[in-house]
Amino acid sequence: MNAGLEKVWDLKPLVNGKDIMNVLQLKVGGPLVREWQQKAISWQLAHPSGSAEEFLDWMKETHSKRIKME
Q1: pTM for this one?
Q2: Which UniProt keywords apply (predicted)?
């Protein structure tokens, strides 16, 4: 069975902390940025051919839903 994970250790993050901070409109990093970095890795594994733009769009959508629920 091939799960497409042969090169998973070579995976480069699609986005960095600054990209995440821009979407969240944060001036300084913190636990929320780390949480989104973990979500970015999970998203990349689930969407191996996904782009940084697609992740950031998903992130904006997910973050705005979270804000509405608070």
Answers
A1: 0.79
A2: RNA-binding
For residues 36 and 24, is the Cβ–Cβ distance under 8 A? yes
Tokens in use for 25? 């409109």
Give yes or no for residue 22 having a pLDDT over 90: yes
Residue 10 corresponds to which tokens in the numbers above? 């070579």
In a domain, 59, yes or no: yes
Q: What share of the chain is helix, strand, coil (3-state, %, to 5)?
A: 65, 0, 35
Looking at the structure of the chain, the number of domains it has is 1
**Which structure tokens are listed for 56?**
């950031």
Choose among 22, 19, 23, 12: nearest CA to 48. 12
User: Could you tell me the two tokens for 13?
Assistant: 């993050």
